[in-house]
Specification:
Distance between the termini: 31 Å
CATH superfamily of the largest domain: Crispr-associated protein, domain 2
CATH architecture of the largest domain: 2-Layer Sandwich
Oligomer: single chain
Structural class: alpha+beta
Strand order of the largest sheet: 2-3-1-4
CATH class of the largest domain: Alpha Beta
Helix content: 25-40%
Length: 246
């Protein structure tokens, strides 16, 4: 297997065992942060080679379905779990349905593709921020409201689209052709504090699903963008670029 190969993998995790994992980790019971539960499960199954970013594509009472990008294909992931995962974690995954495919090794400049991405549009160092910590992570929409002041109306979708466009510009691999906000909500995300006694905390963040089209402007940076993902919280269910033909 070439180290440069990026794989898309489809996995199914047992929903009941996933929630049991959350209870064992003493996560807040009042918040159902599926992305954080999946993050914990993948980390304990595959360690540092856990695929990320990932996208939860469906959930019912039996299974939680997800797609993920990573360097290790299906057979390699199972081998990692067989060697190192605890039995209750190994039983969490529906192994007979784990499937991988290699992503293209090159993306010609000028290629146009459709995309969907669930992203968390946040910024740091917001101008005119009333927060005590000036480098705090805040909703990009809220940061823009602080910047322009109370007298001006701010279009939330326009702010989020501008944020997404900047993500592509910074990647140096793609340019945004069009985008729309397909879904928006404020979601309470679970995160752990640092230190010896790590405690779970809930933080409300913008949760936005975009759909649109992009054009590849540089092959290697675009491949790196797919591997890395868009925006922050990429290891928790955000940032995976799902591509489709236009």
């Amino acid at each position: 297997m070439s180290e440069s190969t990026l794989y898309m993998t489809r996995l199914e995790l047992e929903t009941r065992r996933l929630f049991e994992l959350g209870k064992r980790r003493r996560l807040p019971s009042r918040s159902l942060d599926v992305g954080y539960l999946v993050h914990c499960a993948l980390g304990e199954l595959f360690g540092e080679q856990a695929p990320a970013p990932f996208a939860v594509t469906g959930q019912d009472r039996r299974y939680t379905q997800l797609l993920a990008y990573g360097d290790v294909p299906d057979a390699g992931l199972r081998e990692l779990a067989e060697r190192f995962a605890m039995p209750e974690l190994f039983a969490l995954c529906r192994w007979e349905d784990v499937k991988s495919k290699p992503m293209p090794s090159s993306w010609p400049v000028g290629t146009r593709v459709g995309f969907e991405v669930r992203a968390c549009p946040v910024v740091r160092g917001a101008r005119h921020s009333p927060l005590e910590r000036k480098d705090a992570e805040v909703d990009a929409f809220l940061a823009e409201c602080w910047r322009v002041g109370k007298e001006q109306d701010v279009d939330r979708e326009a702010v989020y689209k501008a944020w997404l466009e900047q993500q592509f510009i910074r990647s140096e691999g793609a340019t945004l052709l069009e985008a729309r906000v397909e879904r928006f909500q404020l979601t309470e995300l679970t995160r752990r504090t640092q230190g010896d006694e790590r405690k779970a905390r809930l933080k409300r963040k913008p949760d936005v699903t975009f759909r649109g089209a992009l054009e590849v402007t540089a092959a290697e940076p675009f491949a790196a963008l797919l591997r890395r993902g868009v925006g922050r919280h990429r290891g928790f269910g955000f940032g995976m670029l799902l591509l489709r033909p236009i």
